[in-house]
């Protein structure tokens, strides 16, 4: 995830007096010029900026055939585990939760397109987490960061962002199948379409105006309006919840439901997706660490990130625990910058976020009735923010432009990320060879190209 506004360092303020005692010694409050009160306020601010994930993640992943109420619990529990681990081990003001983008690929590419059962898909995500943990604890981390070309990284991220936008609009009925044009806009005489349209105008305005908790506020407003908007079968868009509060629900149907055997019996088919999840998680975490520690002025004099190994390992471990609970890749959230801007400087901020996710477990009956028309505008904003990396690329250079455009357009037009990644990677190799830079192509990219060719051959035989 990325925020609409660029990260800005919090203005210099006099260092508050930190509470002495165990918390001060554990988190170094005095050393980092903060206090318990400021850390708690920062944690509340971060939670407000990312609380939408409790509604959005279950709404997406339930389309894979998983129980939505159990997914609410799995989402919150994964966020609690990751945020607590980040706070206690890495001592950084970073909140952790299931990743946007990865949940879309999990549901719509792996399960719905490729036909992999969600139990096998969870096993694949957990296996990726193990690989990421090995990568995080070794020097391979620096090599991966250096060797994967920027054009491929940004192209994949932008493609996922575009796919999120399309899936969100389709799920809300804002775009529909059309026999002549393949897709078209839904009828403006349809109340659910009009509700989605209102949300598409409201949500970016709230974000652009920097309204606190803009995305979750947008979801709440649209959900409330949905009680009065007629939908299909004579029912309202938003159904009445069975209760406002209830005891937390253990994710019984998804907990430890991984199918390891399916993963290894279909390993060749899963290999490109393993690469996607590994790269997406690695570079998302790297970008978030750079952005948040920079905004908090926590970097070391040499520019390095404090406790980087612990932070990467936290992400990796959480991405193993997440699938055990029943959700997809878990990662550090760039929304943590909002907490940094509110004064967060230590892991106590992350623990506060975990505390709010724990409280959210008691409100699961509300989260399961949120309609697609309420989450679609938030997802569109998420998709737009994932495309911001395009601004860093010189699109007048065909070696950069062609792989990015092919990755993005082929992903959306074929509704298949692997197709986009394959053509983007192979076009990058072809263009680098054509301009006489064959020796500059990293071995990792050659290997990826080989994987995609093998994948295409296998898929051609299967289908």
TrEMBL record:
Any Pfam family: Xan_ur_permease
Subcellular location: Endomembrane system
Gene Ontology CC annotation, any one: plasma membrane
Membrane topology listed for this record: Multi-pass membrane protein
Transmembrane portions of the chain: 40-60, 72-96, 116-137, 158-176, 188-207, 214-232, 351-370, 376-393, 405-431, 443-462
Keywords: Membrane, Transmembrane, Transmembrane helix, Transport
Molecular function in Gene Ontology: purine nucleobase transmembrane transporter activity
Major localisation: membrane
Annotated family: Belongs to the nucleobase:cation symporter-2 (NCS2) (TC 2.A.40) family. Azg-like subfamily.
The protein's name: AGZA family xanthine/uracil permease-like MFS transporter
Species assigned in the record: Bradyrhizobium huanghuaihaiense
Organism placement in taxonomy: Bacteria, Pseudomonadati, Pseudomonadota, Alphaproteobacteria, Hyphomicrobiales
């Amino acid at each position: 995830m990325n925020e609409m506004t660029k990260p800005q360092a919090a203005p210099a303020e006099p260092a508050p007096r930190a509470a002495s005692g165990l918390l001060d010694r554990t988190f170094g409050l005095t050393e980092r010029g903060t206090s318990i009160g400021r850390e708690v306020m920062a944690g509340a601010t971060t939670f407000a900026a990312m609380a939408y994930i409790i509604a959005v993640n279950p709404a997406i992943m339930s389309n894979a055939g998983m129980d939505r109420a159990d997914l609410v619990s799995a989402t919150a529990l994964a966020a609690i585990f990751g945020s607590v681990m980040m706070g206690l081990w890495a001592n950084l003001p970073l909140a952790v939760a299931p990743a946007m983008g990865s949940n879309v690929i999990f549901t719509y590419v792996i399960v719905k397109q490729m036909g992999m059962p969600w139990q096998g898909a969870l096993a694949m995500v957990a296996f990726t987490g193990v690989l990421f943990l090995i990568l995080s604890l070794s020097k391979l981390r620096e090599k991966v960061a250096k060797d994967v070309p920027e054009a491929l990284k940004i192209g994949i991220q932008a493609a996922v962002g575009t796919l999120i936008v399309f899936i969100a609009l389709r799920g809300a009925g804002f775009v529909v199948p059309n026999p002549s044009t393949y897709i078209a806009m839904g009828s403006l005489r349809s109340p659910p379409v009009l509700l989605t349209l209102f949300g598409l105008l409201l949500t970016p305005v709230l974000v652009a105006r920097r309204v606190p908790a803009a995305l979750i506020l947008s979801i709440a407003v649209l959900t409330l309006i949905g009680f009065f908007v007629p939908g299909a079968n004579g029912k309202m868009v938003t159904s009445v919840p069975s209760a406002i509060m209830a005891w937390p629900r253990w994710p019984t149907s998804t907990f430890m439901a991984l199918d390891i055997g399916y993963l290894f019996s279909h390993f060749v088919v899963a290999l490109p997706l393993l690469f996607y999840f590994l790269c997406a998680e690695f570079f998302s975490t790297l970008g978030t660490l750079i952005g948040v520690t920079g905004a908090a002025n926590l970097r070391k004099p040499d520019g390095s990130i404090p406790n980087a190994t612990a932070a990467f390992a936290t992400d990796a471990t959480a991405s193993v625990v997440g699938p055990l609970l029943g959700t997809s890749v878990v990662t550090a959230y760039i929304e943590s910058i909002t907490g940094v801007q509110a004064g967060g400087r230590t892991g106590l901020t992350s623990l506060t976020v975990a505390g709010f996710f724990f409280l959210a477990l008691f409100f699961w009956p509300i989260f399961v009735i949120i309609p697609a028309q309420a989450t679609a505008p938030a997802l569109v904003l998420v998709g737009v923010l994932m495309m911001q990396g395009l601004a860093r690329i010189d699109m007048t250079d065909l070696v950069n432009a062609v792989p990015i455009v092919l990755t993005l357009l082929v992903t959306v037009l074929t509704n298949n990320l692997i197709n986009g990644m394959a053509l983007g990677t192979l076009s990058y190799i072809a263009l680098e060879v054509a301009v006489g830079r064959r020796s500059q192509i990293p071995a990792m990219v050659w290997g990826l190209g080989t994987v995609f060719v093998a994948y295409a051959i296998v898929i051609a035989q299967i289908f």
